[in-house]
Amino acid sequence: MKTDKKNKSLRYPLKNIPDGTAKGFEITDENARFSIFIARNGSSVFAYENSCPHTGSPLDWVPDQFFCKDGKNLMCATHGAIFEVDTGLCIDGPCIGDSLRSLEANILEGEVVITF
Ligand code: FES
Questions:
Q1: 12-45 as b/e, with b when 16 or more CB fall inside 10 Å?
Q2: Which of 36, 46, 96, 97 has its C-alpha lying 20 to 30 A from 30's C-alpha?
Q3: Class assignment of domain 2-115?
Q4: What does each of the 116 residues of the chain score in pLDDT, given as a tens digit?
């Protein structure tokens, strides 16, 4: 992982995130510390703050375990909220209709670039 604090970005090799998996990161800058994760769905990547809209707890109870068993949606381990991987919208569970906070995610030269 490479972070660029001036431009507030993170770069991570796409090949290290297999299709249907996700990877979490702790970001520390001069003012704050927060968690994010990158989820891969085919050739697309999506990045979200690792904070459930229900109570603010992290989604993963095991590091990097963000997907449901079906590999199609994301799940919060605390109370089981289900989120669409491509939108972050909660489609089932205690915060239905709420959304994860998304971050800009792009793929450049084989690396995922997250702007935060
Ligand atoms: S904290 Fe995520 S569903 Fe309750």
A1: bebeebeeebbbbbebeeeeeeeebbbbbbeeeb
A2: 46
A3: mainly beta
A4: 777 766 688 999 999 999 999 999 998 877 778 899 999 999 999 999 999 999 999 999 899 999 998 889 999 999 999 999 999 999 999 999 999 999 999 999 999 999 88
